Amino acid sequence: MTRAFICGVSGLVLTDEERVFLAGSVPWGLILFKRNVKDQAQLLALTSEFRAIVGRADAPVLIDQEGGRVQRLGPPVWPAYPAAARFDALDCPQSRKDELVRLCARLIGHDLRACGIDVDCLPVLDVPASGGHNVIGDRAYSSDPAQVARLGGAAAAGLMQAGVLPVMKHVPGHGRAGADSHLELPRVDASLAELDRADFAPFKALAHLPMAMTAHVVYTALDPTGPATTSRKVVQEIIRQAIGFDGLLMSDDLSMKALSGSFTDRAEALFAAGVDMALHCNGDLAEARQVAAASPQLEGRAAERAAAALALIAGTVQVFDPVDARAELNSALAMTS
Asked: Tell me: the pLDDT tens digits for 142-177?
C-alpha cells in the first residue's frame, strides 16, 4: 500500500537497490533534481519505470521548476525561464503581467508534461522583507503581498492548464527568514499581527490550491522552538485554521540542515504535527529508508487530499501552441525590460 512520502533517487536511471526500495516502500511520489535530468527520452524512461514499480500510472513525479536560479530542466535542452521577480519589474499594465506569468507557467508545464512530470513546486508565495536572506530573493514575485498572491495565482493557473499540479511554498512564509534553511534553522521574531498582514496573506488568498509545502522556519510568536514543519500549533492553528488551507500539505526536504535528529525522528515529528506527506530529496538510500519506515500508509484525510489533488489534472491538458507562446513571452520580456 502507498506510503505518505516522496523520495528522490541518485541518478539518471534507477539502480537495482533503488528498484528494490521503491517496490518495497511504495512512496506516493518521486522528486527529481538536476542529477536526474539529461533529456526528454531519459526522463520519460525514468518516470515511466518509477510508476511501473509502484504500480500506479498516476503516481506523481515532482520537480522544482521555477525559472531563474531554481530550474532543474535547463539549457541547452530546455529554455531558460525568467525569475519570478522579473515579471513585476516589467513596464506594462498589471493585466499584461498577469498574462505573462500565466503564459510562462503554461510553457513550463508543457515542458514538464512532455517528460512525464506532473507536479511543479511553484508558485513561491513568500514575501521578501528587510533583513531576509537571499535564498528567496528574486524567486518571489514581489514584496507586496497582494501582488505575490495575484501573480502566484496566475502561475498556478498556467500550470494547471498544462495538466501540472502547483505546490505553493513555503507556508506560512519564508520571506523574512534571516538564514537559508538548507544550511541552518532560521528564526523569525515578527509579531503574529505582522505575519498575518504580510507573510500569511498570499497563502490565504490562494488557500484553494491543491498542494502546499511547509517552511523549516521557527516563528517565535507562534511556537518558540519548533519549525513550522514539525510544529502542531503552526500546522493546525495557522496553516489549517488561520490561513484556511485544507489541501495536501507536504514538508520541505527533510535532509535540509534546518532540521535536527535522525530521519526517523524528523519524519515522525512532521506527521505528529499534522503534515500529510514527508519529502526526502537527496537520494541517500540509508536516509530514505528511515523516512519510509516512519511514514504511515496513505489513508484517511491525507489520502482524500492526495486523490483530490491528482483528480484536478486528470485529462485537463488544454490545446496549446508552444511555439507561438514562447515567441510571445520572449518578445514581451525583450520589449519591456
From this structure: 999 999 999 999 999 999 999 999 999 999 999 998
* Distance from C-alpha of 173 to C-alpha of 254, rounded to nearest angstrom: 18
Categorise residue 314: left if φ over 0, alpha if ψ from -120 to 50, beta otherwise: beta
pLDDT of residue 34 exceeding 70: yes
Query: pLDDT band for position 210 (50/70/90)?
Result: very high
Catalytic positions:
182, 252
- Cell 513561491 belongs to residue: 124
User: Whose CA is closest to 24, among 43, 5, 10?
Assistant: 5
Contacts 24+ apart (CB under 8 A), 183-187: 183/256, 183/257, 183/258, 184/257, 184/258, 185/216, 185/217, 185/218, 185/227, 185/257, 185/258, 185/259, 185/260, 186/133, 186/216, 186/217, 186/218, 186/258, 187/217, 187/218, 187/220
Please tell me the predicted confidence (pLDDT) of residue 184.
82
Instruction: Check whether the bond before 76 is cis (ω within 30° of 0).
Output: yes
When pLDDT is cut at 50, 70 and 90, the band that residue 212 belongs to is very high
Can you state the percent helix, strand and coil of the chain, rounding each to 5?
45, 15, 40
* 3-336: CATH class: alpha beta
Report domain extents, the chain.
3-336
- Write down the pTM of the prediction: 0.96
Cross-strand bridge partners of residue 119: 62, 165
**Cβ–Cβ contacts within 10 Å for residue 224, how many?**
11
CA gap 206, 203 in Å, rounded: 5
Q: How far is CA 43 from the centre of its chain?
A: 19
The answer to whether 51 and 300 have CB atoms below 8 angstroms apart is no
